[in-house]
Amino acid sequence: MAEEQTLLDAAREAVRRSTDTADAEITGLLRAGIADMQKKGIVMETKSGGEIDETAATDAIKPLLLRSLMLYCQYGFGKDGDVAKNERLERIYRELTNTLALSEDYNGGGVTDG
């Protein structure tokens, strides 16, 4: 049986790192992304209501929450020097999380000022 992919594993792939040398930075980005989304009123829980952190299994996370976190890590890591690409990733992240903050499926049923 294959090992479950964790949020950290997925983020490592998203920023194109195959080793754990940048794990501290990636973990920091994941935690910052989670905090940013919570600040917008997005409920950051697994499908079963558990806490989302870097050790959470990716298949337990709603796909749009997972995608948002990967976008946050990609633009936050942004070490390739492509400013336009990083700005585009940030814009997509902001647009997606603003939409999630307005959705009852992601904000716990209440509309926020997001």
| Global structural class | mainly alpha
Pick out the low-confidence regions.
none
Distance between the termini: 41 Å
Tally the structural domains.
Answer: 1
Number of helices: 4
| Mass-distribution shape | globular
Radius of gyration over all CA atoms, rounded: 14 Å
State mean pLDDT (0 to 100 scale).
Answer: 91
Helix content: 40-55%
**Share in β-strands:** under 5%
**What is the H/E string?**
HHHH
Tally of strands:
0
Largest pleated sheet: none
Write up this protein.
With 114 residues, the chain is mostly helical. It has one domain. It contains four helices and no strands. The chain has helices at residues 7-14, 23-39, 63-77, 83-102. Helix 1 packs across helix 2, helix 1 crosses helix 3 (63-77) and helix 2 crosses helix 3 (63-77). It is globular. The model has no long low-confidence stretch (mean pLDDT 91).
Summary tags:
single chain, 114 residues, mainly alpha, 53% helix
Furnish the topology, listing elements before pairings.
Elements: H1 7-14, H2 23-39, H3 63-77, H4 83-102
Question: In a nutshell, what does this entry contain?
Answer:
The chain is mainly alpha-helical and 114 residues long.
